[in-house]
Design goal:
By secondary structure, the chain is α/β, with parallel strands linked by helices. The protein is built from 7 helices and 10 strands. A hairpin with a 2-residue loop joins strand 1 and strand 2. This is Heme ABC exporter ATP-binding protein CcmA.
């Protein structure tokens, strides 16, 4: 996956700017955290990157492809974890993953499902109805669903919701592994403390505008940066 470039991207709803002339580079092999208060434009940015919402102005380049081209030909390369889990309550964890693997047209859905259930720590609950899962377990299953097809871009909206400390530690390790494999990760969260040992790059949005965009070093204090800009 090549980098994603946003060039003066705006998203307008009615007379209001959700995003205003945002220029940004997102690189593969790194996790970019996007933070900001409610209404800052975080969800609008994710929706554009997911090719669900078209920019009102400006352009997004996925490598050399424009937003319009990638929306038609590259959407299958995107993994998406949003507030809507897309999990079927009447199916078991295993059946959910096998169903989505079949929908993606992937080979060996049974083996793929087994692999991802192991990677997200749900092997012991694989044959339970997902309606019986805790919030954290559903979040793990949602992440496995988003990763079945080996996306080169992974978009994460509050991915640690409902996870206990052990679950957060496991997901952090998984995200670091995905980065090492060259995946491009973008994570939106209000939980700044979880980002300290996870994020490679920090983006701060305020009222639709980009107010901070810089790599993170081991000495950087994310909360302090946020307080200065949000």
């Amino acid at each position: 996956m090549s980098e994603i470039r946003l060039e003066s991207v705006s998203r307008i709803y009615g007379r209001s700017f959700a995003l205003h002339r945002v220029s940004l580079r997102l690189r593969p092999g790194a996790l970019t955290a996007v933070v900001g208060d409610n209404g800052a434009g975080k969800s609008s940015l994710l929706n554009i990157l997911a090719t669900l919402d078209k920019p009102s102005d400006g352009e997004v380049y996925f490598g050399e492809h424009t937003w319009a081209t990638y929306a038609k030909k590259g959407r299958h390369k995107i993994g998406w974890v949003s507030h809507d889990s897309l999990i079927y309550a009447e199916l078991t964890g295993r059946e959910n993953l096998e169903f989505f693997a079949s929908m993606y047209g992937l080979d060996n859905p049974g083996e793929l499902s087994k692999t991802w259930l192991e990677r997200v720590g749900l092997t012991d609950a694989a044959d339970r109805l997902s309606s019986t899962y805790s919030r954290g377990m559903k979040q793990r299953l949602t992440l496995a669903r988003a990763l079945l097809h080996k996306p080169s871009i992974l978009l994460l909206d509050e991915p640690m919701t409902g996870l206990d400390q052990a679950g957060r530690t496991q997901m952090t390790a998984l995200f670091r592994q995905l980065c090492a494999e060259g995946c491009l990760l973008v994570l939106v969260t209000h939980n700044l403390s979880m980002l300290q040992d996870l994020a490679d790059h920090l983006v701060v949005l305020r009222r639709g505008k980009l107010v901070h965009d810089a790599p993170l070093g081991p000495e950087d204090d994310i909360l302090d940066i946020y307080r200065q800009h949000a």
